[in-house]
């Protein structure tokens, strides 16, 4: 139990730090172009893709039943990296600031792209698992 808690703690810290840096970088990259929270959207979509890859890759492999992999990467890192609470706050803030179209694009775009990300990631993870054996 202690090892699993440490794995979640370490993974979560690394994921949150990665999200912070990636979000700043992506936001700066698109600065001034629109009102959408592109940094948060990017982290949610890439995190969804990565969890799809990890979950599909683990099936039938030695990682499938290795709880430290699941706790460190899937729960810890990706739990810290993806930002559903930030997404929710930013969407509500857009609505409160009268930017209903940007809020709708953010909400629909994020959910749709995250579902696509998990689907593509899962396919890629299955492909990798089949190639590696």
TrEMBL record:
Membrane topology, as annotated: Multi-pass membrane protein
Regulation: Na(+) is not transported, but it plays an essential structural role and its presence is essential for fluoride channel function.
Keyword annotations from UniProtKB, A to Z: Cell inner membrane, Cell membrane, Ion channel, Ion transport, Membrane, Metal-binding, Sodium, Transmembrane, Transmembrane helix, Transport
UniProt catalytic activity: fluoride(in) = fluoride(out)
Pfam family, one: CRCB
Top-level taxon in the UniProt lineage: Bacteria
TM segment ranges: 39-60, 72-89, 101-128
GO molecular function: fluoride channel activity; metal ion binding
GO biological process: cellular detoxification of fluoride
Binding site for Na(+): 79, 82
InterPro entries: FluC
Subcellular location(s) per record: Cell membrane
NCBIfam families in the cross-refs: crcB
Family from the record: Belongs to the fluoride channel Fluc/FEX (TC 1.A.43) family.
Job description of the protein: Fluoride-specific ion channel. Important for reducing fluoride concentration in the cell, thus reducing its toxicity.
HAMAP family hit by this protein: FluC
Protein's name in the database: Fluoride-specific ion channel FluC
Organism: Puniceicoccus vermicola
Name of encoding gene: crcB
């Amino acid at each position: 139990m202690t090892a699993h808690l440490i794995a979640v703690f370490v993974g979560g810290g690394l994921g949150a730090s990665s999200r912070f840096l990636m979000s700043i970088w992506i936001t700066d990259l698109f600065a001034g172009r629109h009102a959408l929270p592109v940094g948060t959207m990017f982290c949610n979509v890439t995190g969804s893709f990565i969890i799809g890859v990890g979950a599909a890759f683990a099936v039938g492999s030695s990682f499938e039943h290795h709880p430290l992999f699941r706790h460190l990467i899937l729960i810890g890192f990706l739990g810290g990296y993806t930002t559903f609470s930030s997404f929710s706050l930013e969407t509500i803030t857009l609505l409160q600031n009268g930017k209903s179209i940007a809020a709708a694009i953010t909400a629909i775009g994020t959910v749709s792209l995250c579902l696509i990300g998990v689907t593509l990631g899962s396919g890629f993870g299955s492909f990798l698992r089949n190639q590696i054996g």
